[in-house]
Amino acid sequence: MMQVFGAPPDGLQLAPHDVRLLAAGHQIGVREVGFTGVRDKDTLMMAFLSGLALTERFGRNWDALYDVLTDPQARPARLALVLCDYAQFRGRHVQLGAQLEAVLLDAQRTLAAQGRALWLLIEERDSDPRHR
To answer: DSSP assignment, residue 15?
Structure first.
């Protein structure tokens, strides 16, 4: 498998097994967002609030999420966002997942145009025996 950090971010990609170790070697910040308990837009926004270590001032809407992902003061120039248990969430919440992906991909394109990088990495814990 090609090393994911050896190329510019390209949409949603599968996370490599040692994502944190690989990211550290490439001087890429890592943040993890867990989707296990996400039931609706509010719990989705809470998952990002927690995963990105945002303050309670976070607006909890799509525009606010885009803004925090693209804020040069708040994020490193190279960031990997690890989306944990994302495929299961996406299967349960098709419309919410599509809205989220539109925002994430828009942020990824905006950052690329600024010479920055946002990897969107899907990590499935169920398929990884280390997490059972």
So the answer is: P
CB atoms within 10 A of CB 131: 11
Name the band, by pLDDT with cuts 50, 70 and 90, for residue 3: confident
12 occurs within a structural domain: yes
Examine residue 131 and state whether it is found in any structural domain, yes or no: no
Residue pair 122/17 in contact by the 8 Å Cβ criterion: no
Helices (H), 30-93: 41-51, 62-70, 86-92
Short-list 95, 78, 91, CA closest to 28? 78
For 98, the token pair is: 């599509």
Number of domains in the chain: 1
Could you tell me the pTM of the whole model?
0.91
**CATH number, domain containing residue 62:** 3.30.370.10
Cα gap 80→3, rounded to integer Å: 13
Q: Is residue 17 part of a domain?
A: yes
What's at 18, amino acid-wise?
Answer: D
